[in-house]
Specification:
36% of the residues lie in helices and 22% in strands. The chain is an alpha/beta fold. Strands 3-2-4-1-10-9-11 form a 7-stranded antiparallel beta sheet, with helices on one face. A 6-stranded antiparallel beta sheet has the order 5-6-7-8-12-13, with helices on one face. The chain has a 5-stranded parallel beta sheet with strand order 15-14-16-17-18, sandwiched between helices. β19 (455-460), α16 and β20 (482-487) form a beta-alpha-beta unit. α7 packs parallel to α13. The radius of gyration is 25 Å and the shape is globular. Bound molecules: 5-amino-5-deoxy-1-O-phosphono-D-mannitol. Residues 299-302, 345-347, 350, 396-398, 473, 477, 589-590 line the site of 5-amino-5-deoxy-1-O-phosphono-D-mannitol (M6R).
């Protein structure tokens, strides 16, 4: 989490920093800050709050050679003034912004305190900047002091560093947190991702782990911690455009992203099927066939997509397991001789997954990553990589990425069994999605009926249970209403004790095999006064249903039902006046464990 920016040689320096931070706010929004370096003077502005507050604070007239900025998701220390970045070393030689977490910071802090250094914040970051100064004052050059410092750090970092006496240079370093360099005309930029740089830079370089160096207006040096020589770098372009990241008339990114679902399926279809055949690497398909176990690892929404994926692959005879990554990371359990790990992540930067990938690598097992972010840490770490082509997802609540994950897993399953029908089935899904989008007002009415409840329950069986889990996560994430998802049959084994008059119970009904069973579970809660909402499909509809989706093949029903769930949360949050795209306490990419 946290977003960092930096630039040197840019005339519109303040604009780049402020607007860049605004575009990175999805990574964290507890506090914000910038530092400007000019003629040996560093001026810092920082505060708890949003980038819009920082914009008010930084004088519009400010000019400088170099600048860095930060938007924070608090890990060490509450979001207050002294914990806001940038942080400066005791004697002011170094000023830096940091995205990541330093695990051994207490140990390092103690050592520095013993040497007489003082600390003004609770952050791990202040240790880094003071350690740099400590090494510098031992007689090292700034670059060597930085190298020596990062050699001692355990954890993750992307750093942009100002050195007081070098106004024409910004140093950087990276380990397990993303960092991209952009090259403009007579300028260079640093940022946590492409977004801040799209209007400025033409080509980009993704800094990889253990690299460090500096940018100047027309010059860039990249080194590797273990090597002496400079690393030759090759800049690349990106397909992302400013239009891709705009709101395009929508009031919220979440709404825009929900309504992009049909496009997402369309894009997946042409990226993985050419009209005649599937476009997957044969070696990957063979690897999946050969694997005696498929182990899915993911977090949050991506985990819910993996649950659907498991059903797809089990149905064609594969043995599958699905783990929440943060659990697997500490309790890895691998049975079988030829497992294939399938790691699913929108961002490709999730720390819990990166930790798992380190384990997988140590074990020498094969790894397929499914991510939405080309060049991300997970994409690069993989033996096989499949991209989601969902386009940039900016709202913290994940919507279209889930669509792409489930859609891709369905296409991959079909490729393994050479069944092209999936492509026609997906055309039906696109039509059904459009019809749900057209009827969104009915979902808004439902949302208004549940939004004042302190707690809500989502029910489903089979694939509908998987959707219920995602629906529940979405509701709690952006409305702050407590909610639970349950397999319909589990209610009577305990949770029914929580059902009282007017408690909302929302059920998904898509599968003829379980439709009757789930409806009888609903009768059990109706008898206890629950306020029931049913979301069924045409084939299984009853007069009393609240929302009826068009029919699609049952295995693809999560792709349609989830849109109803996403709208339900969106509209409830809207009428509750929540900060929909930036819900409290959250950040888009969870780059800390
Ligand atoms: O980028 P990832 O898919 O790895 O992120 C995983 C979760 O952090 C993410 O899905 C999270 O649960 C979303 N905010 C849910 O809407």
């Amino acid at each position: 989490m946290c977003g960092i920016v930096g630039t040197i040689g840019e005339k519109a320096l303040r604009t780049y920093l402020i607007e860049g931070l605004r575009s990175l706010e999805y990574r964290g929004y507890d506090s914000a800050g910038t530092s400007f370096l000019s003629n040996g003077e560093v001026t810092t502005y920082r505060l708890p709050g949003r980038v819009s507050d920082l914009d008010q604070l930084v004088p519009t007239s400010i000019e400088a050679n170099a600048g860095i900025g930060h938007t924070r998701w608090a890990t060490h220390g509450e979001p207050n003034f002294s914990n806001a970045h940038p942080h400066q070393s005791n004697k002011g030689w170094f000023t830096l912004v940091h995205n990541g977490v330093i695990n051994n910071f207490r140990f390092l802090k103690r050592k520095l305190e013993q040497k007489g250094m003082t600390f003004a914040s609770d952050t791990d970051t202040e240790v880094i900047v003071n350690l740099m100064e400590f090494h510098y004052l031992q007689g090292l050059t700034p670059l060597r002091a930085i190298k020596k410092t990062i050699e001692k750090l355990e954890g993750s970092y992307a750093l942009a560093i100002l050195f007081k006496e070098e106004p024409n240079r910004i140093y950087f370093a990276k380990l397990h947190s993303p960092l991209v360099i952009g090259k403009g005309e007579k300028t260079h930029y640093l940022a946590s991702d492409y977004l801040p740089m799209l209007a400025y830079a033409q080509t980009f370089y993704i800094v990889t782990d253990y690299q460090y160096g500096y940018i100047e207006a027309q010059h860039i040096i990249v080194k590797h911690l273990d090597k002496n020589e400079e690393i030759p770098i090759r800049f690349h372009t990106t397909d992302l455009t400013i239009e891709d990241i705009g709101l395009n008339g929508y009031p919220h990114y979440m709404l825009k992203e929900i309504e992009e679902a049909p496009e997402v399926i369309q894009r997946l279809s042409y990226n993985y099927f050419d009209g005649n055949q599937f476009l997957f690497d044969d070696v990957l398909l063979e690897k999946i066939h050969q694997a005696d176990q498929l182990i899915f690892l993911a977090c949050g929404t991506s985990y819910h997509a993996a649950l659907v994926g498991r059903r797809y692959f089990e149905e064609i005879g594969k043995t599958c397991r699905v783990y929440v990554a943060s659990e697997f990371a500490y309790y890895p359990e691998v049975k079988g001789q030829k497992p294939l790990f399938i790691v699913i992540s929108q961002s490709g930067e999730t720390a819990d997954l990166i930790r798992c990938v380190q384990l997988i690598k140590q074990r020498g097992n094969a790894l397929l990553t499914i991510t939405n972010t080309k060049g991300s840490s997970l994409d690069r770490a993989s033996d096989f990589s499949l991209l989601l082509y969902a386009g940039m997802e900016i709202a913290v609540a994940s919507t279209k990425a889930y669509i792409a994950q489930v859609g891709l897993l369905a296409i991959l399953r079909a490729a393994l069994i050479h069944n092209n029908d999936v492509m026609t089935d997906l055309v039906g899904v696109i039509q059904a999605m459009k019809s749900v989008i057209d009827s969104r007002q009915d979902i808004e009415t439902m949302a208004q009926a549940i939004m004042h409840a302190p707690s809500a329950f989502f029910l489903g069986r089979g694939l509908d249970y998987d959707v219920a889990l995602e629906a529940s996560l979405k509701l709690k994430e952006i409305t702050y209403i407590h909610s639970e998802a349950l397999p319909g049959g589990e209610l009577k084994h305990g949770p029914i004790a929580l059902i009282a008059k007017n408690v909302p119970v929302i059920a998904f009904i898509s599968d003829p095999i379980t439709a009757a069973a789930i409806r009888s579970n609903l009768e059990e809660v109706r008898a206890r006064g629950a306020n029931i909402f049913t979301i069924s499909n045409l084939a299984l509809a009853k007069d009393e249903d609240n929302f009826i989706t068009p029919n699609v093949k049952v295995y693809l029903s999560p792709l349609v039902k989830v849109i109803v769930a996403q709208y339900l949360s969106y509209y409830a949050a809207l009428h509750l006046q929540r900060d929909i795209d930036k819900p409290r306490n959250l950040a888009k990419s969870v780059t800390v464990e």
